[in-house]
């Protein structure tokens, strides 16, 4: 199974500025820990949206509030 790890945008990132040094250090530590434990296997990034499938939901998942 594959997962996407994302972080919440802020004014800094939405302005197109590069990530802060602190964020890069924290992400590097997260990746290193995941690789050392065998959980993180690959980090090739995302493909262009033109090669993907878009899912649209008309209601929330069953049993969860919307």
What is the element layout, followed by pairings?
Blueprint: H1 11-14, H2 21-37
What is this structure, in a nutshell?
The protein has 66 residues and is mostly helical. Helix content is 32%, strand content 0%.
One letter per element, helices H and strands E, the order comes to HH
- Largest β sheet strand count, sense and barrel closure: none
Structural class: mainly alpha
**Count of DSSP-assigned helices:** 2
**Count of β-strands:** 0
Based on CA atoms alone, the radius of gyration comes out at: 16 Å
Strand fraction equals under 5%
Give your account of this protein's structure.
- The protein is mainly alpha-helical and 66 residues long.
- 32% of the residues lie in helices and 0% in strands.
- It has 2 helices and no strands.
- The longest helix is centred in the middle third of the chain and has 17 residues, at 21-37.
- The chain is extended and about 40 Å long.
Short key terms for the protein model shown above:
mainly alpha; 66 residues; extended; single chain; 32% helix; 2 helices
